[in-house]
Specification:
The chain is of the alpha/beta class. The protein has one domain: 3-Layer(aba) Sandwich (Rossmann fold), CATH 3.40.50.2300. It is built from 4 helices and 4 strands.
Length: about 110
C-alpha cells in the first residue's frame, strides 16, 4: 500500500512510519496540510492518514482542498487527543475514543 501520513509530531510520525513499513507498506510523511494536498494531487496513494491538529491549516480544510482538487483517496483521521469531547470538537462532531497501542496488537 502507498500511504501518505500527515503528522506534525515527529516521534509519532516516525513510529507510525516504522510500523507501516514493517508491515510492507510504503509511507511518505509530511508535517503540513498544504504539502499533503500537493503530494496527493501528484501521487496515487491508497490512503491518507491525517492528524487532526496541524501547524498550518485545519484537518477538515485539508479534506476540503483534497476533494476540491478531485483527490478521492480515503482519509483516516488520527488524533493524539485523549478527551473524546476535545477530539470531537476539533472535527465538529461527537466521537468515541478508543486507545490503541501497537504493542498490544503485536504478537
Amino acid at each position: 500500500m502507498q500511504i501518505l501520513q500527515v503528522e506534525d509530531d515527529s516521534e509519532a510520525a516516525k513510529a507510525i512510519e516504522f510500523m507501516l513499513q514493517s508491515d510492507g507498506h510504503s509511507c511518505e510523511t509530511t508535517t503540513y496540510g498544504e504539502d499533503a494536498v500537493r503530494l496527493a494531487q501528484k501521487n496515487n496513494y491508497d490512503v491518507i492518514l491525517l492528524d487532526v491538529m496541524l501547524p498550518d491549516i485545519e484537518s477538515y480544510d485539508v479534506i476540503e482542498l483534497l476533494r476540491e482538487a478531485e483527490v478521492r483517496t480515503p482519509v483516516l483521521i488520527l488524533t493524539g487527543l485523549v478527551d473524546k469531547n476535545d477530539a470531537g470538537a476539533s472535527l465538529g462532531t461527537l466521537t468515541a475514543s478508543q486507545s490503541f497501542s501497537h504493542s498490544s496488537h503485536v504478537n
